[in-house]
Design goal:
It is a single chain. The protein is an alpha/beta fold. The protein has a single domain (about 1-180, about 215-240, about 275-295), classed as NAD(P)-binding Rossmann-like Domain (Rossmann fold), CATH 3.40.50.720. It is about 45% helix and about 15% strand. It is built from twelve helices and twelve strands. The strands form three sheets. Strands 3-2-1-4-5-6-10 form a seven-stranded parallel sheet, sandwiched between helices. A three-stranded mixed sheet has the order 7-9-11. A two-stranded parallel ribbon has the order 8-12. Helix 3 (about 60-70) runs parallel beside helix 5 (about 90-110).
C-alpha cells in the first residue's frame, strides 16, 4: 500500500511508522506532520531513508488533497492531545482535531481513499472507581475536557462522512499508551525523566484515578489489523486489560528505578480530572482475532525506563521547558 500517515512524527504515529517500515517493507510511507512541539524528526531518524516526510498542516486543504490523491490509505494520528494544554488554551485543539479531521475527510471523499481515524477512549467520559463497567462501542459519548470534546467531534464527523458520503473509514478508540518516543509532558515519561534528572516525581491529587494502559506497540498492531481487515463504518475499541491507578503506576516506576515508592510530591489535581477509563476490546478480539502481546505491565515499564535511559539526547533538550510550564500551573 501507499500509506499517508498524519502525525507520524508524534509518539504513537512515529512508532507506527517504525513498525510499518519493519513489518511491511513493500509499503510506501509518506508522513505528514506539522512538526509542532509534539513532533520530532529525531523520532523518525532510524527510518528516514525509508519514508517521505512532508512538513505541513492537516488543515492545508490543497496539500492534504495532493498527498491523499497519491495514497491508497490514510492513517490519521495527527491531533493535539495533552489535556493540560487544552485546559490552558483550547483553540489549537479545535483547529487540529476538528478542522483538521474535516480536511482529511473531504480529501479522502474526493479521491475515494480508505481512511482509518485514530481516537481516544476519553470521548466516553469517565467511569466510577468502584464500578466494574467498561467502555464498549455502544457507550454514549460524554467528553469532559476540551481535548476529549474535540476528539468526540472528530469521531462524529467521520461517522457522518461514512453515512452521508460512503467514505470507507474505520475508527479506533484506544486507552492510554506508553512506550518509547512519548513526549516528556505525559505522565509515565515525565516521572521517569524526573527521576533521571534528579527531580521528585509528581502525582495529581491522591493518585486514585485509574487508567487502562496499553503498550504503544500493541496499539499500533491493532491499528494495522483494523486497517487491513476492519469493516468500513465500524468503530473498534483497543485495550489490553491494563487498569492501574496512578499511584500504583508511580510506585512501580520508583521501585524499578531503585527509589523509595513514596519518594514523590502530591500536586494540585487537574481540573475535572476523569476518574476511571476501562476498555472492553471484545469486538476487536472476536471479529479480527487481535490480542495484546505486551501484557506484563511491569516488564513494559522496565523496557520503557531503559529506553529513556538510553536515549537522553532525544528528551533532554525539551525537559526543562516542560517542567517550567508545569511549575507555572502549580503542577
Amino acid at each position: 500500500m501507499r500509506l499517508l500517515i498524519t502525525g507520524g512524527a508524534g509518539f504513537i504515529g512515529a512508532n507506527f511508522v517504525h513498525s510499518t517500515v519493519r513489518d511491511y517493507p513493500d509499503d510506501t510511507v509518506t508522513v505528514l506532520d506539522a512538526m509542532t512541539y509534539a513532533g520530532s524528526r529525531e523520532s523518525l531518524a532510524p527510518v528516514s531513508g525509508d519514508i517521505t516526510l512532508v512538513q505541513g498542516d492537516i488543515t492545508d486543504a490543497d496539500l492534504v488533497s495532493q498527498l491523499v490523491a497519491e495514497s491508497d490509505a490514510v492513517v490519521h494520528f495527527a491531533a493535539e492531545t495533552h489535556v493540560d494544554n487544552a485546559l490552558a488554551d483550547p483553540a489549537p485543539f479545535l483547529q487540529s482535531n476538528v478542522v483538521g479531521t474535516f480536511t482529511i475527510l473531504e480529501a479522502v471523499r474526493r479521491h475515494g481513499v480508505r481512511l482509518h481515524h485514530v481516537s481516544t477512549d476519553e470521548v466516553y467520559g469517565d467511569l466510577e472507581l468502584d464500578n466494574t463497567q467498561r467502555f464498549t462501542e455502544s457507550t454514549p459519548y460524554n467528553p469532559s475536557s476540551p481535548y476529549s470534546s474535540t476528539k468526540a467531534a472528530s469521531d462524529l464527523l467521520v461517522r457522518a462522512w461514512v453515512r452521508s458520503f460512503a467514505v470507507r473509514a474505520t475508527i479506533s478508540n484506544c486507552s492510554n499508551n506508553y512506550g518509547p518516543y512519548q513526549h516528556v509532558e505525559k505522565f509515565i515519561p515525565r516521572q521517569i525523566t524526573n527521576v533521571l534528572t534528579g527531580r521528585r516525581p509528581k502525582l495529581y491529587g491522591s493518585g486514585a484515578n485509574v487508567r487502562d494502559w496499553i503498550h504503544v506497540h500493541d496499539h499500533n498492531d491493532a491499528v494495522r489489523r483494523i486497517l487491513d481487515h476492519g469493516q468500513p463504518g465500524r468503530t473498534y475499541l483497543i485495550g489490553a486489560d491494563g487498569e492501574r491507578d496512578n499511584l500504583s503506576v508511580l510506585r512501580a516506576l520508583l521501585d524499578l528505578m531503585g527509589h523509595d515508592p513514596d519518594d514523590f510530591d502530591h500536586v494540585v489535581d487537574r481540573t475535572g480530572h476523569d476518574l476511571r477509563y476501562a476498555i472492553d476490546p471484545s469486538l476487536l478480539s472476536n471479529e479480527l482475532g487481535w490480542a495484546a502481546k505486551h501484557t506484563d505491565f511491569v516488564e513494559g515499564l522496565r523496557s520503557t525506563i531503559d529506553w529513556y535511559r538510553s536515549n537522553e539526547p532525544w528528551w533532554r533538550p525539551i525537559k526543562d521547558a516542560v517542567e517550567a510550564r508545569y511549575e507555572q500551573w502549580g503542577q
